[in-house]
Amino acid sequence: MIKEGFRAALSRRSTLKAGALTLAAAAAPAWASEPGKGFDADVLIMGAGMSGLHAARMLEAAGLSVLVIEGSDRIGGRCWTARDLPGRPELGAAQIGAGYGRVRGNAADLGVALVPPPKGALSETSKYQVAVSVGGSAPTGDWANSPLNRLVGDERALNPFRLLPHYLLKDDPLTDPQSWQRPEFIPIDRMSLRDYLQSKGASPEAMRMLEVSTPGWKLSDASALDTLRKNHYYVWEGKNGPYDIVRDGTDALTTAMARSLKREVRLNQIVAMIDAQPKAVTVTCRDGAVYRARAAISTIPLSVMKSIPIHGDVSDAKRAGWNRQRYYKTVYVLFSVKSPFWEKDGLPPTMWTDGAIETFAYFPSFEPPYGTLIGITNGAASGPLDLLSHDELARLAVDELVRLRPAAAGQVSVSKIHNWSTYPFSLGHIGYFGPGDLTAYGTLVGEPVGALHFAGEHLCRVHAGIEGACEAAENAALQILDALA
């Protein structure tokens, strides 16, 4: 009865209506107790990002003893607010959709304020103004009528950022966020994103532009269905209403989640080995610390986890799935802005280029004076940047911006560089699947190994982003409740 009540609570949190659900209302089941002799906790959770912390709060609400360990020296995972910079720009998750019921429930329960974003903020669905530079040319704000615009037909009216959603929405075969799981969509999963976009009529110039800031290493590297279902979700989510942001920065929410736990998160615990048996999981860390629990959840990105020895009943197919999981390669160069140079040159502050820095994206701030400009490079184009030193990359980014927009000379300086590709605790930014891998491995990679369970945004089946990370966390929590019942 108690377990069914807990399931109902999870179901209410899973609804796509924003609102609070008080976790403390879940009564402790009779079968839950303090961990037995030889156990550090009922459940050990690896990773103090949104997924791990959501699972921890759920399991504690069910009466289980929970311990969270984290490899890095900070809480939040890919929720990362640059608190050392004016305006507190985000290095990772920022947008909280109107239908992010789980994320909003945590925020409401913990008193973490959500507010509309500053005026002029970018989003997945907004039609914001963009300056465009092609082939190193001076950027234009009137892209539709520019002689440099070699797009065809309806494409000409679209800035390069809008090309991908334009073709993904063209005759979109999906009807709701779960429909992609139907067997008839397996052939689309087997198509590369490149083949799919070409089948929708994208011109050669559109295909060239789509390779810039691609959602993957290259268009040929990404599953069409994986990209299609995420785009469908964000468009569907946008229809629920405008998104919000965490007033004090996204990682203020994960920090509050961590502080709400009964036991402090243990930082700098880099997992070196996992022994996953049917009734217990033992985790050994690089510093020699050993943790043992009746069950465990790993939210470690598969880009990192695939290199961790896991002893247990792991099939060859599962290991293949772990090895094939892919992550966006993304480099951020953050600029402090001394004055709004875009008012001088008359162009929008955000700019798309096909150069070494693919996007100069402007993020306004609630705090004066001018927000943050972030140079972003994704996919294969990030490879050469990985080889540069911090100072070399900073010089390159400033030189590229000033070359294209002379009004920026002396008005910007690099304040931070963050490379998700080389960050050792993720080795990438957002998980994605290659052609054929979503339907072949999407479920398999998340199946338990003994008492070891898995969560993380790469395992969501309905949602995406941080809401998807919470969805996967709830699935793992329910698996553990079933196993420990």
Helix and strand topology:
Layout: H1 2-14, E1 41-46, H2 50-61, E2 66-69, H3 101-110, E3 114-115, E4 131-133, H4 160-169, H5 186-189, H6 193-199, H7 204-210, H8 224-238, E5 245-246, H9 250-259, E6 271-276, E7 281-285, E8 290-298, H10 302-305, E9 310-311, H11 316-324, E10 326-327, E11 330-337, H12 341-345, E12 351-353, E13 359-363, E14 372-378, H13 382-386, H14 390-404, E15 412-419, E16 431-432, H15 437-441, E17 452-454, H16 465-484
Parallel strand pairs: 1-2, 1-8, 4-12, 6-9, 8-17
Antiparallel strand pairs: 3-5, 6-7, 7-8, 10-16, 11-14, 11-15, 12-13, 13-14
Helix pairs in contact: 1-16, 2-16
Task: Write a concise synopsis of the structure shown.
The chain has 485 residues and is an alpha/beta fold.
Instruction: Report on the biggest sheet.
Output: 7 strands, mixed
Number of strands: 17
Number of helices: 16
**Distance between the ends:** 12 Å
The level of helicity is 25-40%
The low-pLDDT segments are 1-33
Report on the architecture of this protein:
This protein has 485 residues and is of the alpha/beta class. The protein is 31% helix and 16% strand. It is built from 16 helices and 17 strands. Strands 1, 2, 6, 7, 8, 9 and 17 form a seven-stranded mixed sheet that branches. The protein has a six-stranded mixed sheet with strand order 4-12-13-14-11-15. The chain has a two-stranded antiparallel ribbon with strand order 3-5. Strand 12 and strand 13 form a beta hairpin. The N terminus is likely disordered.
